[in-house]
Please model this.
Amino acid sequence: MPLTLDDVRELDRQDPLATFKSRFALPEGAIYLDGNSLGAQPVAAAEAVEALMAQWRDSLIQGWNQGWFDAPERLGDRLAPLLGAAPGEVLVSDTITHNLYKLLGYITEGQGRARPVILSEGGNFPTDGYIAQGFCRFGGFEHRVVPEGAALEAYLDERVAAVVLSHVHYRTGRLRDMAAITRQVHASGAEVVWDLAHSAGALPVNLAACGVRYAVGCTYKYLNGGPGAPAFLYVRRDCQNRGWQPLSGWLGHAAPFAFEADYAPAPGISQFRTGTHSPLAFAALEASLTLWQEVDLAALRHKSQRLIELFRESLSGCLDEHGISDITPPEAQRGSQVGLVVSNHGSSNAPNPGYAIVQALIERGVIGDYREPGLMRFGFAPLYLSHEDVWQAARHLREVLSAGEYLAPRFQQRGAVT
Ligand SMILES: Cc1ncc(COP(=O)(O)O)c(C=O)c1O
Model:
């Protein structure tokens, strides 16, 4: 039996994470199901940025000695418990894109070309494949793609140096068995770099328990660090200090202010720094990570899965008749998002109606996103979503579909970012 409004309000009263919602500054009336693209704003983040502006005004360059300079390592240590990592193993820096390049170079440095192949997976978020391609082109490696859905095993031969994989797939939301795959890759003599973009802050991640040596991830999605917030990378302690990473910038130098002619990598995780970071961006992220220290990750996972089930159950019976299929994997194999694929009603030339459906929802205050071809994505960020929000979002979607509201011409206009 579908839950009633009273039922979901009762679930909210019993929710141990309910108080976090008031610590986010969401627009009035918005139901935000796009935290898997850009997380909502913690109230404390706006305060922290304002304080940083005042510090810049008053302290000028002294700010660098007042916490700005060591922020990449300090925030890395804040992030570590959310990833099952130890202090000194995580650095907040640059973007996933840059960090992938650094790690591919670091892993393969000094190997000669005994293992000349870098693997990436077809259908993954494009930057992972693009960086593998670029790295191979400039580094003299061979790039091979594991087709989407193919068994990795068949591609892991003695020529493979490294493979880049997503922990949770950005389109399907499918969660991989990180421990088993890491064991498999290591047993073949290769390294794996995990992309945690859709798992950090979405579910408990335990890099140490899974035997992971290298990972990257972003902080602007579930971790609420803000638009373009700095990314992170993880290098297990015993894998540090092995050589160089290829973006050998001055702040990754052992003595950056000695201005020496030649590069010498800093000890530990700091060598993965590149150039000057933005204290403004770090201030917003630090405020969010401070909030995250209070979050019980088991409760987060439990609520994320209950919200997903509530959404799907509230839509049951209404998707088929509109040519929509629910591609969300089963609970043990998914992250924190729901994927609904809209069929093109047999016409491959016509624009997919999924885009217009998402636009019609946005007009009603329910914010999700759309990815070609035909995928409507809804992210469930348990810190600022109530059960009632999710119940109402499903009601809006049912109404948009049943009334054909999305067919209105204004929903067909496309912006640059979908
Ligand atoms: C799986 C995955 N990797 C990487 C990125 C982008 O990384 P970057 O921080 O370099 O923009 C995204 C962005 O959505 C993503 O979903």
